[in-house]
Amino acid sequence: MKIQLIAAGAIASLALAGCATSPGYSGGGGYNNGGYSSGGYNNARCADCGIVTRIDTVASGRTAPSATGAILGGIVGAVAGHEISSHTGGSKGNQNISAAAGAAAGALAGNKIQQNVTGDSYDIQVRMDDGRVIMVNQKDLGGIRENTYVRVVNGRVVLR
């Protein structure tokens, strides 16, 4: 019984393997070259790629004292850490440690939030491969400079 099952499985595997195609033996138009047979090169254009032609800094116009985010975040984090530890049955020492850890995490988060709210952004002008010119505003450049080949993905410019 087991031999018949193994034999049937082997025959089915061989039959399916015979149906598979191998890219590279199809004489052009295979999977690897996108359907173009120009000496193995893919000359297709990237629909969402282009070259950065200009970068302008846009001031946010918002200001806040330098440590406001860190202080407020630290206070909220300390209270949250203490409350979570006290409601989960932590000892007094554990509550203090949780409050200190919460304060540190809250200060980091608050500082980052303040930077995002009050920081400058950048208008990035991109001349797309198809000739269009688009403008994207984003908070960080991420290594992007003028004359860099980039891709526009979900409203953000990223290095290609």
Can you give a write-up of this model?
- InterPro entries: Bact_OM_lipoprot/Surf_antigen, Gly_zipper_2TM_dom.
- It is found in: Membrane.
- The protein has a five-stranded antiparallel sheet with strand order 3-2-1-4-5, with no helix packed on it.
- By secondary structure, it is an alpha+beta fold.
- It folds into three domains: 1-44, no CATH class; 48-60 and 120-160, OB fold (Dihydrolipoamide Acetyltransferase, E2P); 64-119.
- Helix 2 (68-87) runs antiparallel to helix 3 (92-118).
- 41% of the residues lie in helices and 21% in strands.
Question: What's the layout of helices and strands?
Answer:
Elements: H1 2-19, E1 49-58, H2 68-87, H3 92-118, E2 121-128, E3 133-138, E4 149-153, E5 156-159
Antiparallel strand pairs: 1-2, 1-4, 2-3, 4-5
Helix pairs in contact: 2-3
Protein name: Peptidoglycan-associated outer membrane lipoprotein
Subcellular location: Membrane
Signal peptide: 1-17
